[in-house]
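[job 0412] stage=fold_complex status=start
inputs:
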Amino acid sequence: MEPIVAEVGMQPEVSVPPEESETAEEQRVAQDLLLLRSQKERAEVLRNLIAEEGKAFPPAHKPKSSHKSWYRLVIGLLMLTALIGTLLFVPPPALKEGAVPAHVIALQEAMQALGAGDKVLVVLDYQPATSREMVSMAAPVLQFIAERGVSWQLLVTQPSGLWLAQELASTAGITPIPEAIYLPGGNLGVFALAIDQNQSSPLLPSGLSALNDYRAILLLEDSGSQFQVWMEQASPWLGKGRFLALVAKQDAAMVLPYYDSGQVTGYVAGTQEGALMAQLLGQQPMHLPHERALQVGLIIMMVILILSMITKAEADATGRRREEKT
Amino acid sequence: MKKAIPILIAGLSGLLVLVALIWQPQLAGWLEVVLNWAVIIASVAALVAMATLLLAHTRKIIMVRHGFIYSVILIGAFLVSFVGGMTAGVENPSYLRWIAAIQQPAEASLLGLAALVMAAAALRLFHQRGWSALTVSFGISALVFLVLGLGWLQALQIPQLDIVIGYLEALPLVGMRGLLIGMGLGALLLGLRIVLGLERPYGE
Amino acid sequence: MPALSLNDLLAFGLCVLALVALGMNLLVHRKHPYSGLRHTSAVRSTEILSQAAAEQGKRLTIGLGLDVADSTTAMASLPVLAALTRRSIFTDQPVRAASGGGTLACLSQSVVRGTYQGAVTPELFKPDYALLAGLSPYAYLAGLLPQAASRANAGVILYGPHRPESVLAVDLVERKGNPVIVLTSDLSAQAVLLASSAQLSLGEDFFDSGASLEVNPSAAAALRAQDLLRIVITVGLILGAVLRLLGVWQ
Amino acid sequence: MNALDVIIGLIGFALTLMVFSYLLGYNFFFRAALYLLVGISSGYIAAVLITKVILPLLIAPIQAHNGQFSPLTVVPLLLCLLLVLMLFPRTVSAGKLPLAFLVGVMAALTIAGVSRGTLAPQLLSIVNRFSPSLVQTDGEPAWGQILEAVFILLGVVAVLFTFHHRTHLKGDTEARSGLVEGLSSVGQVFIGITFGMLFVGFYTTALTALIAQLGTIKDFILSLITG
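[job 0412] stage=fold_complex status=done
writing structure:
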């Protein structure tokens, strides 16, 4: 079991303490000479550079795989063919009822507790690449909020959010398309928004209330580290039970501890849970990315992982047999 | 002395923010000012970095260096979107539609390509990393979550099975929490070292 | 000062403890700051790669990641940039850095320029050595890919907050037959890159660069402080659990 | 479908083909798509930063003071001018001052944010699983809940010790203590399980984007055919 540990950088390695005699030698020299600080520093730079010369290093780590990438092309083309074939010839399945996870129920309850007069801040914090997944989750939720008569605002934290907000609102069929408010400054902006109770900071865009005034803050996220920024810079300044989240499937694991600690009241991760959520809210689920194609893609990955295990076991067995023979 | 000034500035600005956070109502005004300056500086830094990039590509075009055609594409695309944004307005729906027409398919395709690349890479996972507690648990966990991702088990609606699925889905909580706490400790100490001037990411 | 909640008290206590542990370890281990510490092999490999690059007359490209989310984490990579730049000043091809954010790009410029200045060779510095790759996560990836694919590269190091999409950059470097080392603070990226040939560091080893390269004694003191905090946290958790179970802490 | 929709659809189709051409190798079309993306997004972001940040936050306050000296508006301007000097190789070091200021502020935010938003709540959450209201039902111990809480506590500790740095001399070599090594092995299992979920999560997101993109192209071609 050793190789992987060394490979990924977890093997304890040992540093060699500097030789004491070397240090003592240096001090003697320094005492004998009266040097300016800058001269000393330059001498140190040169000493380091000279020390680098001829220093023994083990060979650089080279990728074990062959440079030829034919297997990449074969797998890529096979997968593309399977997905395109499914898209063209297999109809998408009807949505099935299934067990609803606790975090989805928690989000549903929080949404249904919202009423007319409540204020909700919808934070759009995802990249154009994941917009299809995010829109399929967010559009039914926005439709629900709009139907409830809840007063809501759209906040975007990155420039592309300005057009993503238009896309989301028009897909959800919300008219007129609400104006998206741009919050500059990344984590600095999030922090400024969280602490500013009087809306006095020039940094904050007009039309936005203090975060404490919102009954709920609905995060639409596709990045774990960006989600963490909201949990670290904004959540400590607000009472518990404010944050709700719709996250891309890739962030499902990241949200787990924050949901368990109560910093997020409820969340939905991925299109499947998004469809469940839409049903629970009495909305029509969005047209998902073709579910059968998604299943085909997942099965391909399963087969690949199993093949990887089998071929490695086979290679190990062959190696052992060879060793036994010699 | 010259070297000490940036260290002092970093330390003082960090301390001011920390002190203002503790004595929040009294020093809230100063905190607002500091944050305002920081956001402005970060934005100007982005513009300066962008200008440096454009200058580098301009030099490449002028000197007709290898691959200068790509620099032409980059600068041309930059000028079109920048001039368009400044003249039509960055919230103009028509302008945004054109930006979206390029950004959306290019980024979604890059992400989609990552799926294809991952599939090819996974084939060599165990050959590259060998067998260990980490790789075996990783492989089994990935297989379990792929099966759960199909949604077939959930559709059976067997209460006992649903309980097991619930436990399986919550299991990564342990590792994730441990990793988050460890990363948090690392980030906390890095932050402290910066404020104390022991780490100088702005250069010596 | 408003009344502090238990959460705030604990946070404050952790900060004070971290500060004390850092100071204590700086003092106690000032003579041999790096001895008795596990070194992260991925960080040490960056040294090896830089030596190999110098021998081949090729360059190293370092992707510094994004500074969109949390710039402080992104700054963890800058000591490595300084150390590797110092080594490459007099080689045929100096190190090139690519950043995914304005602040990080300016910081990397400042660090690289400072290193040349420190080596009394400011005239050798060129702004091209530390450039912005792109300002959004995907623009950064798009800007990084051509640099990672350069024929002048002896290898590529991705050190900083890289999203999992950087699997494309790793794949491209592999295709070119070059080694790639990845140290990322993004846990999704760590998981995705486990299925690649990249030499990888996991979890909090991301913060080990200064100590593993033996370029900053305070970084080693921070690792020792982390170890101490780990023990204190473990004892605190067990104690807290027992007190809760016994009903002493309601 | 109007002419504009057709043009936009064609751009999307072409860009998708250019990006996927990477499967055949790193080629001109793929590179062109990358540079186009960098150029377009940089220009757009530059325009947004100027109109939404620089003009309202830096320039407008100075104009509001009618040219009169106000330190709160002039200081950021001076700091920004120092940053602009970074454009010239000889004066790159002028940028150190504003950068040091920014670094200090960000470090402080990290200290406060990480400790209050991640460390403290996550640690408290582990202990809170042992609260009497959760581990007792009708005055009797709920062993299932207790076991779950102990499992989480030990698991987190094991993961934390996987990254322990301290080593001790064992004969000629230095190694970690047996207890730490044991905990590390358990911790690696938990890390593996978490990474498995993260791996599948990202793969699913990427796959969703791929299928959606292929679906968009399919719809576009069908609409071209059917008019």
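[job 0412] summary: The two ends of chain C are 26 Å apart (CA to CA).
[job 0412] exit 0
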